Amino acid sequence: MTRFLTAMLVALWTAAGPGAAQQPFAAAATVNGIAVTNYDVDQRSQFLSLLGSPDTDRASVTDTLVDEALQVQAARLAGIDLSEEDVAEGMTEFAARADLSSDAFVAELGRAGVAPETFRDFVRNGLYWRRLVQARFGDLARPQDREVQRIVDRGPQGEIRVLLSEIALPYTPENRAEVEALAERLAASLRGQAAFEEAARTYSRASSARTGGRIDWLPLAGLAPPIASQVLTLASGEVTEPINLGTFFGLFLLRDLDDQAAAPAIERVDYAEYLIPGGRSETALRAAAELRARVDVCDDLYGEARDAPEGTLTRQDAAPETLPADLRQELAKLDPGEVSTLLTRGDDLRFVMLCSRNATVPEGAFERIGQQILSQRLTDLADGYLAELRADAVVIR
Q: What separation in angstroms does the CA of 239 have from each of 171, 189, 208, 322?
C-alpha cells in the first residue's frame, strides 16, 4: 500500500464521523501530534504473532509503537538519516535469520496478511534507534581494556555465571547449634531481595554485609559444589537452604543467571593466608584491618611475617576444586589483591588474599566480553533515555 493511498484512507476514515475511532485508519494513539493508527497496531500484532513473539495484545503493541514513534522522532531531530539502501540491507539481514531472502520473507508475510510496509517500518524504526543510541552513548558505554581484562581474569568457568547475595554466619564448635538455628529461621522467613538485604546487614559477617550481601558475578563452576547445586534450582529472588561450608553457614539469594558468558576456565589460584590470633574478636578484626591498610599485594605479606611465628604466613597455588568449600567460596569472590577475613582456623583469624588466577582464555573471549559489556551498558542508557522521551512527550490514546 503506497503512502499516498494510506493518507487518502486516513482522510476518509477521519471524515467518517463519530464511529471513526473504531475504524482501521483512525488513531489508536498520537505521539507529539503524529498518529499511530489502528491499522498499524493490527498489522504489527499480526507480524509479531507470526514471529512467535510474546505480548502481541493490542495494549502492548500500541505501547511499543508509541515508543518507536518517540525513538524515530528523536533520531530525526538528532540528524540521523537512513537511506533506502540502509533499510533494504536491514530487511535482508533480518530475513536471513529465517534462511530466506528479503523478497521471499515479504512474500510469506503477504500470504499471512501482513503488508510489506509493516516489515519495512519494523526494520527502519529499529535502525533509527540503534544509530541514535550508538551516536549518543557509544563513547560513554565503551569499556576500557582494564575493565574487560578484569572479567577475563576472573571470569566464569564454562558458560554459566550467577549474580548472588549472601549471608555468612560463622560458627565455632561451641555455638554451632545456635548459629544453625538462626540460619534455618532466616531461610524459612526471608522472602524477596529487600528482606534478604536487611537480614544481611544485620546478621552477616562477610564483607558484603554493608551492601546488603550483594556480590558481583561469579562463575557457577567456581562456587563450592553445595552452593552451585542449590543455586541452579532457584528462580530469581529465591533463597537457598542453609549450607554448611565447614566454618560458616551460608544463605544465598539468586539475583540473576547468565548462561551466555564467554570467559576463561580457572585452572589454578595463587593465594596467601596470614593467621592472626584471637579468632573473630574485635582485637583480631582490628589487627586485620590494620594489616590490610599496609599491604597491597601478596608479596607485601612476607615483610609482615618476617618476625612472626613459623606458620603465620602460607602461600599456595592450587586447583579450585581441591580447596575446602569455605575457602573456595571466599576466593571465588576476590580479585587479585583483595582480602577476606570471614574464615577462622582454631583460635586464629584467617587473613586470606588472592594473589592471582591462572586461566585458559578461549579464543576471542576478550572481544566477546567487551561486546557484552558494551551491549549491556548501551541497553541501560537507552532505556533511561527512552524514559526521558516518554516523560517529555505528549501522548494521547
A: 20, 10, 17, 27
Residues 293-313 pLDDT 10s: 999 999 999 999 998 999 999
Calculate ∠ Cα 173-175-181, nearest 5°: 120
The CATH number of whichever domain residue 108 belongs to comes to 1.10.4030.10
| 8 A C-beta contact, residue 161 and residue 217 | yes
167, three cell numbers: 549471608
The sign of the CA dihedral 22, 24, 29, 33 is: negative
Q: How many CB atoms lie under 10 A from the CB of residue 323? A: 18
Assigned domain for 367 exists: no
Helix (H, G, I), strand (E, B) or coil at 39: helix
Total residues found in the chain within this entry: 397
CATH classification at residue 212: 3.10.50.40
In a domain, 369, yes or no: no
Q: What is the pLDDT of residues 336-362, one digit of tens each?
A: 999 999 999 989 999 999 998 876 656
Structural domain boundaries, residue 134: 3-141+377-396
Give the closest residue to 205 by CA, choosing from 230, 235, 175, 234.
175
226 within some domain: yes
Side chain identity at residue 235, one-letter code: A
Nearest to 36 by CA among 79, 75, 83, 73: 73
Mean pLDDT of all residues in 201-217: 92
- Return the residue matching grid coordinates 565447614: 246
158 part of a folded domain: yes
- pLDDT cut 90: percent of the chain above it: 60
Tens digit of pLDDT for each residue in 238-254? 999 999 998 999 999 99
Residues 330 and 243 in one domain: yes
- Identify whether residues 44 and 90 lie together within a single domain: yes
Are 49 and 193 part of one and the same domain?
A: no
